């Protein structure tokens, strides 16, 4: 598959009012003014949208986000955030305050976000966009514990290395297992009533720019707490799950296969029986056709990694392809976090 990616742009309508001072420097060329992306903000009641700063930001700057009536969670160093709309229609004011470490004054960007009446379902993601800046960044293929606990505690981590938020709703995950069907990705709260930490994003499938999403089995919180790995997800991590199955991957082993973590994983757009567009892979699988069951390990390299107990496979560079030189094993995993800029 091609490993060239370009950001996916969201287009809506917004009024942006910015007020900031130009950063002085030795060069007479002015720095690029900061703006908030996407360039529009329309969201349904109780819905979510990712917001990202775009422009020249000092490396030691601190960004603080606030919403007048909804709620907002900062991601990474605060350069992006996930906004959750209130339950009533109208408008909300969102501010991003940028404070460079060498200054005592702050610059503020203000966004007016329109809150619309919620609809029952969203339209399918268009497949006209050929490339997306989302990669499989980590696969917990061999968690600690017995077989039952490991099926509950597997996860697949996604990372958006681009400059635009990307909605991965209606995307699919397949692990080449014989039993079961591909997993349709949905927001955690749309499938599970089990509450996670309130700092996590559980009602949205939008991955912010340079943000992480973690796909968990629906029964993750129902496993024995004494056997479950206590994953500590960073604030702002998007939590996804499978729409219908009880595990990730096949219905018996999940993504660990009959050997420890030795399944390939494919992220694609399409349906349970058709692949329209492969987004990314782990394990360099051979894509034999347009049906998910045509996917199998190509058996020509040392991928997938053979993982010892409590180990995950972590991608080294999100911009580089799925190859044996671009994966490392990580003890206990780092879900929702990674060595990326």
Descriptive labels:
disordered N terminus, mainly beta, 341 residues, 23 strands, ten-stranded mixed sheet, 3% helix, five-stranded mixed sheet, 2 helices, 36% strand, Immunoglobulin-like
What's the Cα radius of gyration? Answer: 20 Å
- Arrangement of strands in the largest sheet: 19-18-13-14-17-16-11-10-22-23
- Would you report the number of β strands? 23
Give the overall average pLDDT.
79
Give the H and E element order: EEEEEEEEEEHEEEEHEEEEEEEEE
- Poorly predicted spans: 1-29, 120-129
Topology, please?
Elements: E1 15-19, E2 35-37, E3 42-44, E4 48-54, E5 62-67, E6 71-75, E7 80-84, E8 90-99, E9 107-116, E10 134-142, H1 147-153, E11 155-160, E12 166-167, E13 171-174, E14 183-187, H2 188-191, E15 206-207, E16 211-216, E17 238-242, E18 265-270, E19 275-282, E20 285-287, E21 295-297, E22 311-315, E23 327-331
Parallel strand pairs: 3-9, 16-17
Antiparallel strand pairs: 1-9, 2-4, 4-7, 5-8, 6-7, 8-9, 10-11, 10-22, 11-16, 12-15, 13-14, 13-18, 14-17, 18-19, 20-21, 22-23
Walk me through this protein's architecture.
It is a single chain. With 341 residues, the protein is mainly β. It folds into 2 domains: 15-116, Immunoglobulin-like (Sandwich), CATH 2.60.40.1080; 134-331, no CATH class. It contains 2 helices and 23 strands. The protein has helices spanning 147-153, 188-191, and strands at residues 15-19, 35-37, 42-44, 48-54, 62-67, 71-75, 80-84, 90-99, 107-116, 134-142, 155-160, 166-167, 171-174, 183-187, 206-207, 211-216, 238-242, 265-270, 275-282, 285-287, 295-297, 311-315, 327-331. The strands form 5 sheets. Strands 19-18-13-14-17-16-11-10-22-23 form a 10-stranded mixed β-sheet. Strands 1, 3, 5, 8 and 9 form a 5-stranded mixed β-sheet that branches. The protein has a 4-stranded antiparallel β-sheet with strand order 2-4-7-6, with no helix packed on it. A hairpin with a 7-residue loop joins strand 20 (285-287) and strand 21 (295-297).
